[in-house]
Specification:
heterodimer; A: 58% strand; B: mainly beta; four-stranded antiparallel beta sheet; globular
Chain lengths: 111, 114
């Protein structure tokens, strides 16, 4: 399968804690993106990290990329109830802007 | 800036019936995508348009699915005839041009085939 694999499939943490999700893939990439999906706002782009970058920040989000291990992680710091959603990594294979989504991690923030 | 518009939001049909979904991308976005998302899975690309031309339709079940983007703006996706396994959310996305990568998604159409 070309899909990336997110790990874990599901994660429940207390509000205020940090959440870490991982994504592994098999083929070389041009860049890797993370998306969030919840019932309120649909599927939304969070952050893009290029293959020559190792780390990127956006607000409470931190993304790392290790191309030698073909893996990426998404860290959400100081989680909030509104972070409850499914998170997907999407790999850009540098072929006509086609991106391949993984199966996602379902994150639940407990009050 | 208006987002990607899709209609209808929900559709229930019986197997072997036909159904059509409509998408209006963000103004000025040349690239348009249709995805199928089955419950519990990530979106799977069905077809990608660049203006009114097809870039990739390798995952589109062409015996029953068809899509068009005649004027390079809005698009329709049709299923004829529908099967039970077509029950899913159909997402439309657009991006401004090749190389921009970030895709903007519509709210989706949830299809239930009985």
């Amino acid at each position: 399968s070309q899909q990336g694999e997110e790990d874990p499939q599901a994660l429940s943490i207390q509000e205020g804690e940090n959440a870490t999700m991982n994504c592994s893939y098999k083929t070389s990439i041009n860049n890797l993106q993370w998306y969030r999906q919840n019932s309120g706002r649909g599927l939304v782009h969070l952050i893009l990290i290029r293959s020559n970058e190792r780390e990127k920040h956006s607000g409470r989000l931190r993304v790392t990329l290790d191309t030698s291990k073909k893996s990426s992680s998404l860290l959400i710091t100081a989680s909030r109830a509104a972070d409850t959603a499914s998170y997907f990594c999407a790999r850009d294979l540098n072929r006509d802007d086609k991106i391949i989504f993984g199966k996602g991690t379902r994150l639940h923030i407990l009050p | 800036e208006a987002g990607v518009a899709q209609s209808p939001r929900y559709k229930i049909i019986e197997k072997r019936q036909s159904v059509a979904f409509w998408c209006n991308p963000i103004s000025g976005h040349a690239t348009l995508y249709w995805y199928q998302q089955i419950l519990g899975q990530g979106p799977k690309l069905l077809i990608q348009f660049q203006n009114n031309g097809v870039v990739d339709d390798s995952q589109l079940p062409k015996d029953r699915f068809s899509a068009e983007r005649l004027k390079g703006v809005d698009s329709t996706l049709k299923i004829q005839p529908a099967k039970l396994e077509d029950s899913a959310v159909y997402l439309c996305a657009s991006s401004i041009l090749q190389g921009s990568n970030e895709q903007f998604f519509g709210p989706g159409t949830r299809l239930t085939v009985l």
